[in-house]
Amino acid sequence: MAYNSNFDVDAVMAVLGTIGERFQDGTPEDEALRIAAVALLYVRENGKLEDYREYFRRFFIPASESIVVVQSFSTTEEADAWLAQRLGQEGDLVRVAGKGFRVIPRRKGGGLMFLRTPLPEEMEP
């Protein structure tokens, strides 16, 4: 589930207040809600809301969205030429003719090679 990192602080505070009304003062639930509410207010009042929004977004972002393809090639020949020019680095993820590959070290002879590594969009039905 994706969460909205551009949440309205006042709307969140109102929801926390509504939930808090269900619990007696001093209960663990009441304490947890108060701590969360005050922490959110602290972040906003200290001008760190945008930093928190970015942290929140990264915290909940699906892993597949954080995968970065560093280079795309139409053909295998283009990809091989790029690798031969030593432009790739170990660990780089590239797209060759719509398919994913990871740059890895050759086992024998040194240098780098491509290892077939499906991209997230290749895994979807």
What does this 3D model show about the protein?
The longest helix has 18 residues. By secondary structure, the protein is α+β, with helices and mostly antiparallel strands.
Structural class: alpha+beta
Question: Which stretches are low in confidence, meaning pLDDT under 50 for 5 or more residues running?
Answer: none
| Gross morphology | rod-shaped
Helix fraction?
40-55%
The number of helices is 5
Order of helices and strands: HHHEHEEEH
Q: Report on the biggest sheet.
A: 4 strands, mixed
What would the average pLDDT be, to the nearest integer?
89
Number of strands: 4
CA-CA gap between termini: 18 Å
Radius of gyration: 24 Å
How much beta, percentage-wise?
15-25%
Strand order of the largest sheet: 1-2-3-4
In short:
By secondary structure, the protein is an alpha+beta fold. It contains five helices and four strands. The chain has helices at 9-20, 28-45, 49-60, 76-84, 120-123, and strands at 71-73, 93-96, 99-105, 112-116.
Characteristic terms for this protein:
single chain; 125 residues; alpha+beta; 4-stranded mixed β-sheet; 5 helices; 4 strands; 44% helix
Architecture blueprint of SSEs:
Layout: H1 9-20, H2 28-45, H3 49-60, E1 71-73, H4 76-84, E2 93-96, E3 99-105, E4 112-116, H5 120-123
Helix pairs in contact: 1-2
